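quick one
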Amino acid sequence: MAGREVDFLLVGGGMASAHCAAELRRRGAEGSILLVGREPEPPYERPPLSKEYLRGEAGREDAHVNPAGWYAENGVELLTSLNVMSLDPAARTAKLQGGEEVGFGRALLGTGAMVNILRVEGAENEGIHYLRAFGNSDAIRADAEAAEHMVLIGGSYIGTEVAASLTARGTKCTIVMMEETVLSRTFGADAGRWFGELIESKGVTVHGGEELDAFEGDGRVRAVVTKSGLAIECDAVVIGAGVRADAMLAQRAGLEVDDGIVCDSKLRTSAEGIYAAGDCCSYDSVVHGRRLRVEHWDVAMQQGIHAARNMLGDDRDYDVVPYFFSDLADWASLEYVGPAQDWDEEVWRGDRESGEFSVWYLKDGRVAGALSVERSEDLAEARRLLADGVDVSTAKDRIADPDSDLARIA
Ligand SMILES: Cc1cc2nc3c(=O)[nH]c(=O)nc-3n(C[C@H](O)[C@H](O)[C@H](O)COP(=O)(O)OP(=O)(O)OC[C@H]3O[C@@H](n4cnc5c(N)ncnc54)[C@H](O)[C@@H]3O)c2cc1C
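structure w/ flavin-adenine dinucleotide:
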């Protein structure tokens, strides 16, 4: 028997839950909403943690999804520093940390993702960081203030963004990664080389094709050692080795889970009345014709909104093309739509030298993904062509010509 009943229980205090709550109220839902998150902070956006917040250019409140008074003003009960310990999908109850039991009509799982931890020799030394929450960003900034040299493990978004932010603040940075070029896993080797040359020209040292073997230290990290025998002296390390969905609560509750919480195309989990959104959500994409889990800010927001609408009876497929952005200090802003699983051709549009171009990733003549560096306008068309599955094999010259009108590609 539940201690109390709510109409909407939103589990996880991140982007997905916060936008779900806001959309429920925007749509006029009058029922009670309870949002429970384990972090001490109200829901916040994580992108600034590796960018303007890390550089000290923005405050904590700037990252909050909703202003401080919004929850009370909108009748959303927000419980922070509190875990949802278990769910009983059949009884539609949840047990909160401390033992309170809450019955719910509909629930959203917006439990997000957890960083991958690298368990290598020396990992217990001080000064080795991961980056997911405000506290991590604070600790990295504090170390950067005293450090002469920091090493970033991983050449994807976290590694490159943090290297750019810290370099811009005056700390010498080195990236160590298994790939040959930075950002190449998403954007391919050619675009990866462009980003690599950019960050090296700004003073970042990059060691590609290197696998971490161990950390050396005396209680505090002093060097990063790779399997090929490279030893790089440093005062601190930030590891960006990817994340995995936090599906623990769902798994314990008996919901279907693969590399995330399995959802259908309407973001419904395998349990009646329970939805998932954001980094934890592995959904049937009607756009891509395959199962997808995306770890992007915009997707967490859009899915939180979409789940709210479906909870209120819309019953529609989630058909938004995933979008991503990243900033490397003020050196370059990039945006991406996709994600391309693989591709057999790249078409470049624009000018590499001036740093204004887009790269179109084609698979069997169709757009599978597109990257923009300072050419946002191209992405709107790429998104349309991707969503509609348009065969662009006869329009490649037009795509490659930066002055041609993409809107005319049918
Ligand atoms: C440093 C950094 C930079 C980023 N930069 C970009 C970027 O530039 N562009 C971009 O598109 N994306 C970026 N991202 C990714 C983006 O922030 C995520 O995709 C987004 O935060 C996902 O939101 P979410 O609501 O799904 O999950 P999260 O933001 O992870 O929130 C989930 C919350 O739920 C809590 N939780 C989990 N289980 C429970 C439980 N049982 N009880 C209570 N609470 C629970 C977690 O502790 C967490 O607070 C970045 C991420 C990081 C870490």
